[in-house]
Amino acid sequence: MPEAVKTYVRVVEAVNRRVGRFAMYILYVMMAILAWSTISKITPWPSIWTLEMAQFAMVAYFMLGGPYSLQLDSNVRMDLLYHRWSPRTRAWVDAFSIFALMFYLGVLLYGAVESTAYSIEYAERSPTAWRPYLWPIKVIMCIAVLLMLLQAIAFFFRDVAKIRGEEL
Question: Per-residue confidence at 75, pLDDT binned at 50, 70, 90?
Answer without folding.
Answer: confident
